[in-house]
Amino acid sequence: MTEPLEKRLEKAMAELQAxxxxxxxxxxxxxxASFAALSSDRAVRATAGPQGELSGIEFLENKYRxxxxxxxxxxxxxxxxxxxxxxxxxxxxxxxxxxEPSSDVPELKGFELDWERxxxxxVLREDDGSARGGQTAPAWRDALGAEGED
Length: 150
Prior knowledge:
The protein is mainly alpha-helical and 150 residues long. It has a domain at 35-129: Ybab, Chain: A. It has helices at residues 5-31, 69-95, 115-119, 139-142; strands at 35-38, 44-48, 54-59. It has a 3-stranded antiparallel sheet with strand order 1-2-3. A hairpin with a 5-residue loop joins strand 1 (35-38) and strand 2.
């Protein structure tokens, strides 16, 4: 025997209210979130703000003094991109529960988000690319010669 319509509607409204409160809490948390990442050469730390924007750059241990402009630029871009990807993954994790189907209201099937389309393909890749454990030079380093020149 199925549940009366009024009871199902009451459950759906309670779940909707709980979801609205959870979304508001998540939005408040995300507005203040930030993530930092180091470049692979550990010369630069970049911080990404709540919308993935670059909110901070630190040049560590004066390593930049021994770097060519191209090497420093590559380190900054690498760290900034890594911080942005961390922030995007945090957003994905925080928002994922709101896309899932309802366990209490079977009519609420949930929906699928195309995270790759929203944030770009790197957000779905493993943190280490494909070579965890094996230290490989970042792809951007391949374009630089020994002196950091193209």
